[in-house]
Each structure stands twice: as C-alpha cells, then as structure tokens.
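in:
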C-alpha cells in the first residue's frame, strides 16, 4: 500500500471553514503538537468529518462524482434495480449504472481508486488520533468521547470498504477482503495483504464495541450532528449485524439507536414532499420542498450541515439528483425510481409523492429537466440560489426497519410488525389492513414479485423508505436472492435504460454477481508487495 500521509482538515467546531495541512514523518513534532490535547484532537476529528463531504482532491479528474459518503452511496444505489439513470448526461455515475467502472481499475480518476483512497485516508487519520489519545492532555471525558468517534469512523470505513471490494460475509468468510491497518502509517510502515472477509468484520465489530463502550464511559452529549454518537454508532452496528446475520445483535443495536433523545420519526405531514418543476416553455426552475435536505429534519441521526460558504455547485449530491435547477447534471440525466417499485406504493401512501409516477413523458419524449416519468423529488436543493443542501447519512426510520427485520428473523412476528408499523403508519393510513396477522421470515422474491410473507413486506418497505439513502446493491448482496432490471408492470415494461444487455445470458443476475464488486486499484498492486496481480478480484463471472 502506498503510504498515506497524515492529513488533517483544520475545521472549526461547527465545521465552518477548512484548510489543509499535511505532515510527513520528518515533521512529527507538528503532528504531535496538534494532537497533544483534547482541543487538538477534536479539531482533527472535525477534519475527518469534513473529509466526508467537503474534499474533492482524492482524484485529479472526475471529482464531480467523487464527493465523499454520498457519492459512494449513490453509486451503490445506481448499481441496483430500484434507481434508474435515464441518460448519460455529463457522464457522472453513468459508468456505475452500467457497470463500467471495474474496467477502469488501472486509472487513478475512477471509482475503484477513489473509494479505496477515500476510506483509507479516513482510516489513516483516525489511526493517528487513536494513537495520540492515551498521551493527550485535557478533559478525560472529552478525550474519551473523541476516541469513541475515531473508532466509530474506522468501523464505518472498513464496513464500506469490505462491502465495496468483496462479496457479503455469509458464505464468503474466507475470501480475500481488504488490508487492515490499526496503527499510524508512514513511509517506513510495512504494507499488508488482504485480510479475509471474516477478519475484516471482526475488526469492524471490535471497533464498534470499543466505540460504544467509550461513548457510554464519556457520558458527554454530542456537540454537532456531524459527529457520530452512541446512537448513530449503534445504528451502524445494527447495519453490520444484518450483514453478519446476527439477528439478536441487530435487534439490540437497533433498539439502542431508537432510544436516542435527539431524533423522532417523521410524521406524515413532515414526510410530505412538494415537487419542484421545470417549465419547458419559460425554461424556469421552480423550487419544491423536502425533509431530506436538512440535518434539522426531525429523524436525522447523523449528517453533514452544509453552510453557505461550503456549498459546492457541481460536485454535489443534489446537483446529481435535483432536476429542477439550472445545474444541468440532474436536468440532463434524471434519477428515477423503477416503475415496478413505484407501483407498489399505494395511492394512500404519502411517499407516492416523492416521485413523479407515469406523467405521460417517457424517455423518448423527454427533453430536459424533471418532466419525465418516475423522476425523483425526494432529494432537492434546500436553496437553489446558494446551492445549499445538507447531507443526511442516517435516519431514525432505518433503525426501526432493521429492528423489524431482525425480530422477524427471530420469529417475534408481533414485535416485528409493531416496529414496522412505527414507520409505515406515518406514511400510509390504510397500511395496517395489509399486514394484520402477517408472519413468515422467508424472503420469497428478490427484485420483483408478490408479497407473501412478513419479511417480504419489511424488505419492500425498506426499499421504498430508504430509496437513495443506503446503497441498494449492498442489500442485494447481503440478502443473496439475486436480482433483475427487467420486468413488466401492468402494460409497461421496465423503465431501466440499461438491462445490462452486455450480459444477455442474465435476465436474473446471481446473488454473487461479480460486477457488483470493485477491482482493487492498480496503484495498490503496484505499491504493495503483499498484494499481487494474482490477488486481484476476478474480472469475469465464472
């Protein structure tokens, strides 16, 4: 592995401004001074958080599709079947949607390289922070809380890496995963080979247990929504436990996340979206409203507040999603919900208003902007004039959905229905009729089908509620049911613009479809003697 330098983004506590400082092994005294006390440690942690949304220098080109956490999640959503990219537009995320990123693993400007470098830089920085903790001066509770945050960020980073570069845990425990680094690295640090998938998850579990223990020990309230706390870290632990099929841990962690005093579920009124629109005649954009662009939204558990002086116009999640603005990325390449998933949403469900539906303008008739069948309005700029919109990384609704899934797996069907009801009763006033007495922990279909069991209903509600938020391909991999982009719904065929026809033998893709897994970047193989070309992920499906 090419050694990552120690990089800290100096940030104010409210993350209002940043500047870059890089130190090398020859200037360790500067690094030691920065991390010498609680105040310096928190500044360093703020820099780590700022990296998650306000750093564009991981690649020398294509930076407009490499903007931190939201870019990784959007790519993972577009690799699945529930989100449709209707056109190439400026080209951003088009290769993710068409599974054409893997072929560019030798380049330092595409997804394989960006995701690897991004998360390993987060890991490198928190390793320095963790190492400095025992000797740091200042308030012990504050230092303990910062150490908790650093362990949580490391767990998050390894979780995203292992999901991106290898198959899911269960059934693939001994496959090569990603290298594990838990100590500060420098030019003289020895590289490491690929740990097994099981070893990576063991490290994630260890970091999460440590983080939660330290949060509980510190007993300090969170200073800013951008910081991980015991509740958001518990939600992260619940996510991991689902992949591990550890249903009891998932339920316990989800319950702990639900106990947060800082978030409440969105009511039906709060979950209502007002659609923006583009006027083809006047060529004017009209702003809508949505709860999914502000960290002040009641159910947000972790997110990034974007102040006006931090907003990036083009290299932004909202520039890719909101087709009702003069930022042409989304207007030239709208992101739509699959017509099958949309048709599963009853007319009585407020979430039906998060998308267009069939408005009589299919891709062949569409010209520009949001006036196209099934276009999304869930994610819109909060302020088009200043291009402001906050990033939401976690919502309380996800904790209830995980609890429902875990309890269903444990055959606590009443508890599972009750957990699911907490979310859906705020979306669809008629929903209870559908699930009264429903049981069954078997998932009977992958992408399309008819709900037959309680598990089917839980997973369907998850796909609707969390559309665009958690990276659908990760669920496809962990659920191991296979998937497809081709279907008919009523008189319509699938609205996907690419059924992945480059693989005509697959109308239903296998659960372990390797195109879902990124290649190890060539620069890692070139610089790490413990990862050779033979260690590369397979390029062709067997």
């Amino acid at each position: 592995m090419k050694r990552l330098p120690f990089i800290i983004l100096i940030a104010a506590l409210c993350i209002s401004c940043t500047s870059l400082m890089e130190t090398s092994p020859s200037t360790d005294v500067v690094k030691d001074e920065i991390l010498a006390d609680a105040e310096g440690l928190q500044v360093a942690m703020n820099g780590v958080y700022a990296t998650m949304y306000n750093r564009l220098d991981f690649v020398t080109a294509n930076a407009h599709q490499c903007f931190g956490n939201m870019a990784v999640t959007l790519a993972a959503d577009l690799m699945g079947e529930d989100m449709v990219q209707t056109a190439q537009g400026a080209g951003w995320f088009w290769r993710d949607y068409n599974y054409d990123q893997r072929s560019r693993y030798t380049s330092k400007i595409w997804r394989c390289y960006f995701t690897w470098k991004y998360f390993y830089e987060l890991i490198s920085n928190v390793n320095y922070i963790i190492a400095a903790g025992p000797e740091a001066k200042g308030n012990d509770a504050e230092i303990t809380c910062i150490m908790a945050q650093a362990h949580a960020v490391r767990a998050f980073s390894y979780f995203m890496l292992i999901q991106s570069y290898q198959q899911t845990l269960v059934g693939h425990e001994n496959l090569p995963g990603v290298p594990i680094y838990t100590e500060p690295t420098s030019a003289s640090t020895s590289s490491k080979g690929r740990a097994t998938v099981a070893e990576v998850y063991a490290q994630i579990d260890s970091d999460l247990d440590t983080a939660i223990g330290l949060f509980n020990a510190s007993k300090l309230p969170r200073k800013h929504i951008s910081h991980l706390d015991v509740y958001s870290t518990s939600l992260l632990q619940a996510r991991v436990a689902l992949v591990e099929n550890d249903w009891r841990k998932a339920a316990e962690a989800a319950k702990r996340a639900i106990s947060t005093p800082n978030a409440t579920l969105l009511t039906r009124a709060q979950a209502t979206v007002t659609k923006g629109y583009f006027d083809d005649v006047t060529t004017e954009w009209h702003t809508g409203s949505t709860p999914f662009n502000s960290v002040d939204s009641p159910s947000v558990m972790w997110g990034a507040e974007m102040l006006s002086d931090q907003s990036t116009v083009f290299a932004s999640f909202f520039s890719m999603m909101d087709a009702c603005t003069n930022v042409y990325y989304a207007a030239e390449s709208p992101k739509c919900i699959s017509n099958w998933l949309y048709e599963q949403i009853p007319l009585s469900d407020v979430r039906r208003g998060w998308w267009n539906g069939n408005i009589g303008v299919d891709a062949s008739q569409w010209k520009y902007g949001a006036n196209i069948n099934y276009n999304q309005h869930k994610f819109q700029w909060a302020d088009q004039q200043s291009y402001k919109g906050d990033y939401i990384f976690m919502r309380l609704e996800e904790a209830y959905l995980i609890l429902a899934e875990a309890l269903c797996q444990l055959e606590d069907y009443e508890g599972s229905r009750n957990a699911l009801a907490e979310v859906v009763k705020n979306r669809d006033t008629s929903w209870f009729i559908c699930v009264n007495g429903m049981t069954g922990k078997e998932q009977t279909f992958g992408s399309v089908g008819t709900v037959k069991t309680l598990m089917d209903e839980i997973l369907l509600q998850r796909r609707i509620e969390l559309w665009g938020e958690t990276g659908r391909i990760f669920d496809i991999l962990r659920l191991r049911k296979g998937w497809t982009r081709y279907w008919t719904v009523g008189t319509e065929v699938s609205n996907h613009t690419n059924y992945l026809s480059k693989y005509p033998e697959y109308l239903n893709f296998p659960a372990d479809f390797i195109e879902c897994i990124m290649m190890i970047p060539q620069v890692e193989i070139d610089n790490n003697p413990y990862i050779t070309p033979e260690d590369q992920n397979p390029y062709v499906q067997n």
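note: Residues 78 and 97 are 5 Å apart (CA to CA).
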